[in-house]
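Lecture notes, continued. The same structure-token format from the folding unit now serves as the input rather than the output. Read the line below as a description of shape only.
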């Protein structure tokens, strides 16, 4: 799914030597700029200066923080889904109580309005244009319904059942991309018709910027990441047998990538690239939580260093703390 570019609350296999060597060689041959010329910066928040607070709305301790405003949200845990017109859409739930699950619309004046209830807020996504909410309310079933609601008032707009454990990749306008175990489908919501797009193992898409990325085959079996044009999947933009895409910038010109086989609590290295794969910057730390953008040229990283955690703001020239550092949680405490 093309995710929100906004920072939220800190969330906080062994392979053969021959295979590793093959992957590294393929990466150097396919994308030499990715391997040279850019140093890796070690981010330890206690060594960084304190810059301005995070400039975009974000969640802190159950509040939506927007500049100097702190808007109290219902529930105990919140997830910022993104912007809808002048409002913000937030999913919340109470710890240990599924009856508290809801999606709320926070208007520009701070007014809160519940638009969905009893839907897991972690299963709901906001469409790229901010107009609709889409989810698989009963995930994990071989045949399950995908539902679409208005992001303004929660009115149900469409529903269709898909076979093959359906998941939502992204949506924009009247078109949604739905992934099943066997294929990726365009679902034209208004007309309620589907069209096969691909049989590849797609794991991300951005309709606005005409991007689709997938694995050529299972990564643990020698698969690589391939980025293509959504309108023409035969047009390659970038390929890597070392990295995979974590996030694409709001203007579609850059992307953050992490190790192809990164798993568990979070990656230890994040690489900033132009959309064609040219390396711009590389950062390492203990592990990274959130990866997003404050502006199209400013990255926000949830950095868990050796001693402390902070949201760190990075440009190509400098990195600084955008939140006050807090003690780093042990990986077993994260989640």
């Amino acid at each position: 799914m093309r995710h929100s570019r906004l920072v939220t609350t800190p969330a906080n296999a062994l392979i053969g030597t021959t295979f590793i060597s093959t992957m590294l060689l393929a990466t150097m041959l396919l994308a030499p700029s990715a391997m040279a010329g850019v140093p890796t910066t070690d981010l330890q928040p206690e060594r960084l200066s304190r810059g301005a607070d995070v400039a975009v709305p974000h969640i802190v301790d159950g509040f939506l923080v927007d500049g100097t405003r702190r808007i109290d949200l219902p529930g105990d845990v919140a997830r910022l889904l993104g912007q809808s017109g002048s409002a913000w859409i937030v999913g919340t739930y109470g710890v240990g109580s599924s009856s508290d699950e809801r999606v709320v619309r926070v208007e520009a004046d701070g007014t809160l309005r519940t638009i969905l209830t009893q839907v897991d807020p972690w299963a709901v996504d906001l469409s790229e244009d901010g107009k609709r909410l889409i989810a698989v309310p009963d995930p994990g079933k071989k045949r399950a319904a995908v539902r679409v609601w208005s992001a303004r008032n929660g009115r149900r707009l469409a529903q269709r059942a898909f076979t093959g454990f359906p998941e939502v990749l992204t949506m924009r306008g009247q078109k949604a991309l739905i992934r099943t175990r066997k294929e990726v489908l365009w679902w034209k919501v208004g007309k309620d018709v589907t069209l096969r797009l691909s049989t590849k193992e797609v794991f991300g898409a951005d309709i606005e910027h005409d991007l689709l990325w997938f694995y050529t085959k299972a990564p643990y079996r020698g698969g690589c990441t391939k980025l293509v044009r959504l309108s023409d999947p035969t047009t390659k933009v970038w390929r890597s047998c070392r990295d995979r895409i974590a996030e694409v910038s709001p203007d579609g010109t850059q992307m953050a990538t992490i190790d192809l086989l990164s798993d568990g609590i979070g990656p230890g290295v994040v690489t900033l690239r132009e959309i064609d794969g040219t390396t711009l910057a590389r950062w390492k730390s203990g592990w990274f939580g959130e990866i997003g953008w404050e502006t199209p040229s400013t990255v926000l990283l949830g950095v868990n260093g050796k001693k402390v955690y902070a949201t760190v703001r990075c440009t190509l020239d400098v990195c600084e703390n955008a939140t006050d550092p807090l003690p780093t949680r042990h990986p077993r405490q994260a989640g």
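Point for the exam: Helices lie at 17-30.
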